[in-house]
Design brief:
The protein is of the alpha+beta class and 139 residues long. The chain has helices at 2-11, 66-80, 99-102; strands spanning 19-24, 41-42, 50-60, 84-93, 119-129. The protein is elongated, with a radius of gyration of 20 Å. A five-stranded mixed sheet has the order 1-3-5-4-2, covered by helices on one side. The protein has one domain (15-129): Hypothetical protein apc22750. Chain B (Translation Initiation Factor IF3, 2-Layer Sandwich), CATH 3.30.110. It is built from three helices and five strands, in the order αβββαβαβ. The chain starts with a helix and ends in a 10-residue tail after the last strand.
Length: 139
């Protein structure tokens, strides 16, 4: 019985650790906000003047919870000093090749969009509203 449990545990799929990156699109002039700041998530670009600060990308395990993936993205957007995070992509991808065709360790070499990749990606753009941070005032 113990042997069956050991074999089953060894064959279980490994959970892919989440990775969060921030790629600056503008000079880093904004002060970071606390990691737990109230960061609004938008599903479309705002209908007002704004500046794109940075791209936030979360790659995570296929089975990661929506709330956790979004929380990771929000924390990284807070780090950029943004006013909001516009979600431009949030998708899951499951491998379309059986594991024996991929090879024992090939899953580590596959990226999002590649055959053999099983995971999740969220891409967002951290923005600041121009009118909130403008130094000019109407006379």
């Amino acid at each position: 019985m113990l042997m069956c449990v050991t074999i089953a545990a060894g064959c279980a799929e490994q959970k892919v650790p989440s990775e969060v990156t921030l790629s600056w699109l503008a000079p880093e002039t904004r002060a970071a906000k606390p990691p737990d700041c109230a960061m609004p998530l938008l599903s479309a670009l705002p209908n007002t003047d704004y500046q794109e600060l940075a791209v936030v990308q979360v790659t995570a395990d296929y089975d990661s919870e929506d709330q956790e993936v979004r929380r990771l993205a929000q924390r990284k957007a807070c780090e950029s000093g943004a006013d909001a995070l516009v979600i431009v992509e949030d998708r899951k991808q499951d491998s379309n090749l059986p594991p024996m065709q991929i090879g024992e360790h090939d899953w580590e070499q596959h990226g999002i969009g590649d055959a053999g990749y099983r995971g999740r990606v969220l891409n967002g753009v951290a923005i600041v509203y121009e009118d909130l941070h403008s130094n000019s005032h109407p006379k």
